[in-house]
């Protein structure tokens, strides 16, 4: 009878231990399932972030190309501006030279016209 009680007690302990282990196993399986679900969601999110990053990389490369183009255009514009300024200075110098030459010719013309009038007067007096 004592042995039977001891065996029954051992069976009860083992049954409780089995129930505990089964419950523990079920909890761990549930945790594993939830973690796998989380990993799947994180992988999906990671893929989406990679796609977004690739898009941003393409956009950045495009902006770099645009910047390089604008920078090149700016360099060309500065070069054209410098050439235009140089041409403008040359034309201003030419204009100043022509203005001086015109003044000299005008002065010579006035002198010549006076001399002509004086000669007319002289010829008229003879």
Main sheet record: none
Beta content comes to under 5%
CA radius of gyration = 53 Å
What's the rounded overall pLDDT mean? 98
Q: Spans of 5+ residues with little confidence (pLDDT < 50)?
A: none
Order of helices and strands: H
Beta strand count: 0
The total of helices stands at: 1
Give the proportion of residues in helices: over 70%
Cα distance, first to last residue? 181 Å
Structural class: mainly alpha
Task: Describe the structure concisely.
Its main location: cytoplasm. This protein is mainly alpha-helical and 126 residues long.
Written description of the protein model:
With 126 residues, this protein is an all-alpha fold. The protein has one helix spanning 2-125. The radius of gyration is 53 Å and the shape is rod-shaped. The N and C termini lie far apart (181 Å). The relative contact order is 0.03. The mean pLDDT is 98.
Please tag this protein with its features:
126 residues; mainly alpha; 0% strand
Give the topology, please.
Blueprint lengths: L1 H124 L1
């Amino acid at each position: 009878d004592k042995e039977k009680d001891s065996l029954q007690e051992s069976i009860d302990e083992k049954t409780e231990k089995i129930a505990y282990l089964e419950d523990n196993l079920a909890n761990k399986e549930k945790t594993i399932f939830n973690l796998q679900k989380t990993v799947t969601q994180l992988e999906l999110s990671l893929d989406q972030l990679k796609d977004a990053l690739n898009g941003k990389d393409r956009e950045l490369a495009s902006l770099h190309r645009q910047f390089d183009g604008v920078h090149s255009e700016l360099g060309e514009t500065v070069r054209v501006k410098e050439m235009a300024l140089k041409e403008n200075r040359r034309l201003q110098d030419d204009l100043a030279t022509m203005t001086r030459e015109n003044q000299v010719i005008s002065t010579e013309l006035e002198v010549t016209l006076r001399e002509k009038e004086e000669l007319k007067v002289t010829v008229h007096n003879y």
